[in-house]
Amino acid sequence: MKFLLDLLFRVLQLFTEPYFLVFLAVVIIALLRRKNKSKKWRIGILITTVLMIIFIGNGFLGKLTSAYLQKNYLHTPEMKAAAVQNPIIVVLGGGVVDIDHTEKVHTMSYSRMVTAYQLYHEYQKKNQPCTILISGKGRGHISEAELFREDFKKMGVPDSDIIKEDKSMNTYQNAKFSSEILKKMGNTSLYLVTSGFHMKRSVALFKTFGLKPIPQASDFIDTEITVFPNSYNAAFTFVMLKEVVGIWQVQLYNSLGVNK
Hints:
- The chain is an alpha/beta fold.
- It has 2 domains: 2-57 and 230-256, no CATH class; 79-217, 3-Layer(aba) Sandwich (Rossmann fold), CATH 3.40.50.620.
- Helices cover 56% and strands 12% of the residues.
- The protein has helices at 2-14, 18-34, 39-57, 60-70, 107-125, 144-155, 171-185, 196-208, 231-256; strands at residues 88-92, 96-99, 102-105, 131-135, 162-165, 190-194, 214-217.
- Helix 8 (196-208) links the parallel strand 6 and strand 7.
- The protein is elongated and about 75 Å long.
């Protein structure tokens, strides 16, 4: 059953890819023309595709999606070291880039790194224990967790305060493997650091594995309402739409009890 659901959502996610939508429209128009269907149908599909591109590219849909994903995390609790005793700060990786055979963490990862360090520093100022758990393998030769660890060490975080979870390849595995580590430690008090658009799904998955993370969004994305469509609005809108589909998937899987 899970295999079929995974396949269904893989297909559904195709509809958040701009090239697929254009390709689909072209194929449908070509098939209608070949079968000598009404010209009105072909024109209708073409107009619908153009309007959809405008609606996505002018930032309007992006604004709605951005609010749905991020508004609950705009005003996160102030970083006070006394709020949680002996916490784990779980930082989710944002990907690895390989340029000229040199691997670096993705640009969005740096905001997560800074947010995690700021929170860690608040505890250090009060001489209170705090640990950073870095979650992510990535697709490079060096894991995201290891690249994060190297940068945290440059910031002055000792190895003794860093835990690497370097097996996970997606958010589901981030939550699953991190929860296994936390439960072995007997500590489920945690802050969860990731991007704002990614937080809703991440929190839902960590709750799936019995954890109650305190969200600390590191960055936010939004679109700008414009008269003419542009690639900036389209790119971020499609990113956020894919995240919405991911949230639906988590909710359905949880309701069916197939997410563990």
